[in-house]
Design a protein that fits this description.
By secondary structure, the protein is of the alpha+beta class. It has one domain (11-221, 278-403). Helices cover 35% and strands 19% of the residues. Strands 7-6-8-9-13-14-5-15 form an eight-stranded mixed β-sheet, with helices on both faces. A three-stranded antiparallel β-sheet has the order 10-11-12. A two-stranded antiparallel ribbon has the order 1-2. Strand 1 and strand 2 (43-48) form a beta hairpin. The protein is globular.
Length: 412
Amino acid sequence: MGDRAGHANIGGVVGSGLCTQCGTCVSLCPRGAVTAEWSVRRGYSVRVDAALCNDCGICVDVCPGEGLDFTPGAWWREENDGAPVQDFLGPWRRLHVGWAPDEQTRYRGASGGIATAILQGALALDLIDAAIVCRMDPENSMRVQPLIARTAEEIAECRGSKYNVVATNTMLRRVLDEPGRYALVGLPCHIQGFRLAQARSARLRERVAFTLGIFCASSFEPRATEVEALRAGLDPGELARVSYRGPGWPGPLHLGTRAGDASESALSTYFPRFVRNASPLRCRLCPDALSELADISVGDTWLPRYEGTAGVSDLVIRTARGERLVDALAPGWLTLFASTPAEILQTQEETRQMKRDRYRGRMWLRKISGRPVPRNPGIAHETSLRDRWAGIKDLAGEARGRVEGRRYPSRS
């Protein structure tokens, strides 16, 4: 093994700048040679202990960093069982918009509480024993902590968006070691890493009952949260509460200190700063916004007619497994309405521009500079003048954002 990307171990991927910080390699290394160290400035830095590593290549085989096959005959499409496929939308069996019937779950969730309702419903119906989710770390409010939730209360504690990198797949080691039926909730890179790991692990295939993918334009370095705190005149080291969205929809960013000082910032104000200042490079080179490899994918329904509501989600059912799950949960746990590909794409138009026009432009810029790029066969990479201009503008905006961030020196 170890020849999928031409590296003996994951250090080569990290050195090329293509690590997604998903954490899959940490869990799948049989010798415990791979670790991920967290910092405010970068998020997770993956390291290989040369004294423990024997270059077996497993970490490389399960890494999504150097790209994924998106062609019609890709190995992972067997799960979709002939479902229609559309560029950017990916494979789908059924499309819906909807929300959680419970008013509090809907109001307190990021976009209608759909993800919380799916997990709590699956737990209540004895379809899973636990869910791999994430929450803000109680000991460090600028860090997101992956965990295994085993009760409805623990699942509720993890609701809401986390605009901050998280190595969710470090929890796969627990799945391998602890019998049970698990749900995995993750961003596209987490789901990709999991599918690659699942392809070589019968235990993961047996123990993970379903995957719930979250729509993602980009993740963000913890530094983004630190800068927002400093902008607000708060000490990042004293933060006791960070909530990126909600309650309500879409909900503002809430920051609060142990001393009781607090600030709020509207999503439309702070999110563009996050994109400019703290989007990891590998996120800008990712074409998968809607978690195409998941059993079910969910994300905000960004349509004007839903403004002023308690939140609405797109729900894309991609596999027969996902279809059976939704049929078991609706209508008791889910309020759903049929949708169409055109409507789902309309709700994600801004993200589509990021993951197609700007993506192609940034890939082009990186190629002409002679730096490594991920290989994603099946995704169109021919660049128009418009794509190139989008990439140049994105790079310029990133540069301005990084310079702007220097006005707020890190205290970590």
